[in-house]
Structures are given as C-alpha cells and as structure tokens.
C-alpha cells in the first residue's frame, strides 16, 4: 500500500463527535474506512459515520457501544482511544474526587475500550490502536499536574500494551498533540478573565506561532493507524507545534 488508504477497514473512534476525534473520523472515512464514533454527545456526528452514545467511564456502556459498532461494521480493525477531559491545577489544587473523575475517563476509559475492542482486533488482518495522549505527558507544563498524570499513564500504557500485543500483530501508538484549536480550547478561553489576552498568551507559547489544527492531529493518527506505519509500534508522535521537541517553555 503506497498511500493513506483504509478501503475495507473499519474504525472505532471514542470522543469522535468533536475536535480531534471528529476530524480523525472524517479523514478515515474520506480515505475509505467505515467508522463508528462513540461519544457522550454523539448527536452531531454526520453520516456516513455511525454513532452511539457511550460514556467511556462506564464499563457497561463501553461494552454495549463496542459490540453494537463491531456488529454494524462487521468487525474492528482500528481503535482510536481519543475521548478525554481536561483539568487545570497544581498538586494542591485538585481534590480527590477530581482526580478520580479525570483518571476514570482519561486512563480507565482507554483500558475499558481497549479491553472491549481487543477480541475484534485479534481477528483483523491490519489491527492498530492509536491513543490520543498529550504534550502534557512529556513536557513539564505548569498548572497541569492531574491532567499530565493522566496522559503520562496513557503514554506508559501505550508502550506496555504494544509490548504485550506485538505477538498478536497489533500495533499500539499514540499522538501527543500540543494546543489544538478545538471546542476544548474555546471552553478554556471562555473561562479566562480576559479571553482575548489568554488567546494571545496561548499563541505566544507556540514555537510555530499558531495553534495546531485538528486536521493536523487527525493526519498523524491516520498515518499511525494505517498500514503505511506497519513498522511503527510502542512509540509516540508529537504534533505540538514544536512545544516539546524545541524545549521551549512559556515565558
Ligand atoms: P473536545 O472537547 O473537542 O472533544 C472531546 C470529545 O470527547 C467530545 O465530543 C466529548 O463529548 C467526548 N467525551 C468526553 N468525555 C467522554 C466520555 N466520558 N465518554 C465518551 N466521550 C467523551 O476535545 P479535543 O480537544 O478534541 O480532545 C480530544 C482528545 O485530545 C482528548 O483526549 C484530549 O485530552 C486530547 N488533547 C487535546 C488537546 C487540545 O489542545 N485540544 C491537546 C492535547 C491533547
């Protein structure tokens, strides 16, 4: 295969109704895949993608959504573990219930969805898992201890799962996005005292001088999920405008 092609392949994308997940689902679809988006708010997922209401923090919901998607699509070749929630704060700022809530979604959500999809991946001829991690897993970002811990776990799980699943021919990788222009960032800016000021500060932190686009992250996920990346497993790909690699920090 010489191009980014998914003809005959099927994909499940969690958090596929918005931002990075939606852009990924749309790109995979445009390149020939049949895609199911599992999301807490799936109503805006356009056809021909199929959609289901799934809460990755709920085991039964994940199991039901994955079974439904696999039956409808006729199996699962690609899993994109993308659903996630944010959290701001230093080590003293987040009470235990916030830690539990974020780890339930960002870490256990990946665990549950992967467990539910694995039996289908084991029957696939081109199985791949791509996790949406974050630059927070690799760079010491200020005011992000809980979120960084959750994404650090996703990065470590990516490598450990890749080691376990290599014998089954299942590749496991992750992308580490930087600051991506999605509704997530809009919500963050909406909570700021001065959103215009905060947006300018965000941009100033970017070595490239602009935010990353959801399509740029989707392209990286699609590449890692594709047979083009057949020799790549147990590793991460930064799509962060240079935030981590250039070792630049907010002034
Ligand atoms: P987004 O808010 O636009 O989309 C997230 C989607 O996940 C939403 O559709 C939401 O309904 C869904 N979701 C949230 N909790 C869920 C749950 N419990 N079960 C099922 N679905 C759930 O955000 P985004 O920016 O596209 O973020 C997607 C992923 O990218 C997240 O894992 C996030 O941590 C990661 N990320 C985002 C950025 C960024 O700057 N936007 C940077 C690094 C990493």
TrEMBL record:
One of its GO terms (molecular function) is oxidoreductase activity. InterPro entries: NAD(P)-bd_dom_sf (IPR036291), Sc_DH/Rdtase_CS (IPR020904), SDR_DHRS6-like (IPR051122), SDR_fam (IPR002347). Pfam families: adh_short_C2. Keywords: Oxidoreductase. CDD domains: SDR_c. Gene3D superfamilies: NAD(P)-binding Rossmann-like Domain. Belongs to the short-chain dehydrogenases/reductases (SDR) family. PANTHER family: DIHYDROANTICAPSIN 7-DEHYDROGENASE. This is Short-chain dehydrogenase. It comes from Streptacidiphilus pinicola.
């Amino acid at each position: 295969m010489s191009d980014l092609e998914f003809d005959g392949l099927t994909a499940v994308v969690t958090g596929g109704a918005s931002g990075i997940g939606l852009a990924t689902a749309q790109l995979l679809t445009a390149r020939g895949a049949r895609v199911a988006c599992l999301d807490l708010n799936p109503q805006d997922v356009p056809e021909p993608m199929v959609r289901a209401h799934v809460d990755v923090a709920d085991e039964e919901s994940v199991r039901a959504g994955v079974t439904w998607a696999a039956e409808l699509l006729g199996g699962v070749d690609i899993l994109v573990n993308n659903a996630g929630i944010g959290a701001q704060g230093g080590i003293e700022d987040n009470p235990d219930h916030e830690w539990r809530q974020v780890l339930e979604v960002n870490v256990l959500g990946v665990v549950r969805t992967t467990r539910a999809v694995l039996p289908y991946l084991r029957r696939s001829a081109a199985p791949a898992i791509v996790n949406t991690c974050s630059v927070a897993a690799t760079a010491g970002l200020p005011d992000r201890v809980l979120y960084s811990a959750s994404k650090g776990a996703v990065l470590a799980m990516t490598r450990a799962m890749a080691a376990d699943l290599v014998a089954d021919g299942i590749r496991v990788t992750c992308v580490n996005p930087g600051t991506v222009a999605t509704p997530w960032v809009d919500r963050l800016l909406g909570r700021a005292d001065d959103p215009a000021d905060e947006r300018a500060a965000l941009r100033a932190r970017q070595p490239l001088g602009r935010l990353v686009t959801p399509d740029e992250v989707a392209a990286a996920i699609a590449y890692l999920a594709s047979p083009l990346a057949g020799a790549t497993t147990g590793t991460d790909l930064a799509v962060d405008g240079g935030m981590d690699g250039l070792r630049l920090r907010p002034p």
